[in-house]
Amino acid sequence: MPDHWGFVFAAYGIAAVVLFGYWRRLIRRHAELSALKARREAKRS
User: Fold this and answer.
1) How far apart are CA 15 and CA 31, in angstroms?
2) Rounded CA Rg of the chain
3) Strand ranges (DSSP E) for the chain?
4) pLDDT of 1-45, one tens digit each?
5) What pLDDT was estimated at residue 44?
6) How far apart are CA 27 and CA 17, in angstroms?
7) DSSP 8-state assignment for residue 8
8) How many helices (H) and strands (E) does the chain have?
9) pTM
10) Distances in whole angstroms, Cα of residue 36 to Cα of each of 8, 15, 23, 31, 40
11) How far is C-alpha 16 from the geometric centre of its chain's CA atoms?
12) Half-sphere CA count of 32, side-chain side, radius 13 A
């Protein structure tokens, strides 16, 4: 039975890239929501 380590490493690599991209999206979304909240608070004052 041949080894398929190349496919295993590729799968982990793809998963890491996808998770990194999702993490960056969450950080950007958090920053947008924080800025929106700050603008709303400033508008109330």
Assistant:
1) 24
2) 20
3) none
4) 578 999 999 999 999 999 999 999 999 999 999 999 999 999 887
5) 83
6) 15
7) H
8) 1, 0
9) 0.73
10) 42, 31, 20, 9, 6
11) 10
12) 6
Please count the CA atoms within 13 angstroms of the CA of 35 that sit on its side-chain side.
Answer: 6
Q: Which residues of 12-21 are buried (b: 16+ CB within 10 A; e: fewer)?
A: eeeeeeeeee
Write down how long the chain is. Answer: 45
Structure tokens at 8: 């295993």
Task: Measure the CA–CA gap between 32 and 43, rounded to whole angstroms.
Answer: 16
CA–CA distance, 9 with 31 (Å, rounded to integer): 33
The residue whose two tokens read 């890239």 is 17
DSSP 2: -
Residues contacting 26, CB < 8 A, separation 6+: none
